[in-house]
Specification:
single chain; about 375 residues; alpha/beta; six-stranded parallel β-sheet; six-stranded mixed β-sheet; 17 helices; about 50% helix; globular
């Protein structure tokens, strides 16, 4: 029976999902015994104290957040197996729970480009690997498409106080950005910083500023006003694979150790990005109507009732803004919302199809495959297995 010390920040959903995945593996392959060590032990006892406790408890392994310095050798010298979450930087001498950070940045860039934005910004940290590489992916993709990215490093702020709730260097930076602008933040907490700062200085979200976070932390995203769109990750799957790797390390079933990658899966769209960027006020009104009513069975005729344009004029101006026709835009958005529900709900595909305004699960299966390249059942199975 393995004895494992867990050292995670469970105040955030990322840490909770890692633990959920670890627990699921132990139930299927254990049972294991866990010691969930509070993070303040790391700060007060230091590595020496953690190793002392691990030896006394006869721990087989440690999975968690550890500082990337020479102190890690104390654990290795004690013969204790360790997997580290790269909450600052990756380790070179032990396995990491890391992520497809660059890929998440690219996903955010592609998402904003499809919405028609021309101005882009990133808010995060340059000295933390998961923020830096998300920024790199975001900027690399946008530069390849001929766009520049404005950057704000949180360390530019003078203190660690709740400065984003009052006029500050952040609010000054937000004011200086060309509008409308699409901002990706390194995580959801930083995304909420932006929504709070915008309220202080009167910047409209999403009309002037669309904001996208990372992690899809439900509490933080819904605490934000307006609710924050975010990139979801297969974090639970990462926890499961980390536990599997630890099992292999302890039992000697593995030769070469490897890193565990938590990858982005989809963008969960909420009100902070629920708009497309355009200076055409009629098309902006049409897009707002579509996004606000996408759960209903709206048609092109419904959109026409919102604007004083002919069908031909609407189609031409809509095509110029979004790159697609009105019907296809509605149809694609309905499919995206349907895909999101497949992963967020335990209901059957038929139930979700009817709720989403599709007449039958058979038709939606065919239509879904045309856009996503697989059936709804395959999509659900593929993505849920990554969690």
């Amino acid at each position: 029976m393995h004895k494992i010390i867990l050292l995670f920040d469970i105040g955030e959903e990322y840490g909770q999902k890692l633990l959920k995945g670890i627990a699921r593996y132990s139930k299927e392959n254990g049972p294991w015994i866990f010691c969930r060590m509070p993070l303040f032990y790391r700060e007060t006892l230091g590595m020496k104290g953690i190793v002392k406790f691990a030896r006394e408890w006869e721990a087989d392994g440690i999975i968690g957040q550890l500082y990337n310095n020479d102190d890690i050798k104390q654990i290795l010298n004690a013969g204790i197996h360790v997997i580290a979450q790269d909450f600052k930087e990756r380790f070179s001498n032990i396995p990491n729970i890391t992520g497809g950070y660059f890929e998440a940045g690219e996903m955010g860039a592609r998402y904003f480009l499809k919405k028609g934005f021309k101005n882009f910004a990133f808010y995060g940290f340059k000295n933390i690997v998961w923020s830096r590489e998300r920024s790199d992916g975001f900027e690399h993709y946008l530069r390849s498409q001929g766009h520049k990215v404005h950057y704000f490093d949180q360390d530019m702020a003078p203190t660690r106080e709740l400065w984003f709730y009052k006029p500050s260097v952040l609010s000054q930076w937000l004011h200086s950005l060309p509008k409308p602008v699409a901002i990706m933040t390194c995580d959801d907490e930083r995304g909420q910083h932006i929504t709070e700062a915008c309220k202080q200085v009167g910047i409209q979200i999403p009309e002037e500023m669309a904001i996208l976070g990372v992690d899809n932390d439900e509490m933080t995203c819904n605490l934000s006003d307006p609710p924050l769109s975010s990139i979801a990750l297969n974090t639970e799957k990462g926890g499961y694979e980390a536990a599997k790797l630890m099992d292999e390390m302890i039992t000697g079933k593995i030769g070469v150790q490897y890193d565990i990658y938590v990858m982005p899966t989809q963008i969960v769209e909420r009100q902070s990005t629920d708009i497309a960027s355009t200076s055409d006020r009629y098309i902006a009104k049409a897009l707002k109507f579509i996004h606000q009513n996408i759960e209903k069975r709206i048609t092109v005729k419904d959109v026409l009732r919102q604007v004083p344009l002919s069908r031909r004029a609407l189609e031409m101006r809509f095509q110029e803004t979004t790159g697609t026709g009105v019907y296809k835009y509605i149809y694609n958005l309905q499919i995206e919302k349907f895909a999101q529900k497949l992963l967020d709900s335990d209901k059957t595909i038929f139930e979700i199809a009817i709720e989403s305004g599709f007449e039958s699960s058979k038709n939606i299966s065919r239509q879904f495959k045309q856009i996503k390249g697989c059936t709804p059942a395959e999509y659900r199975r593929r993505h849920l297995s990554k969690r």
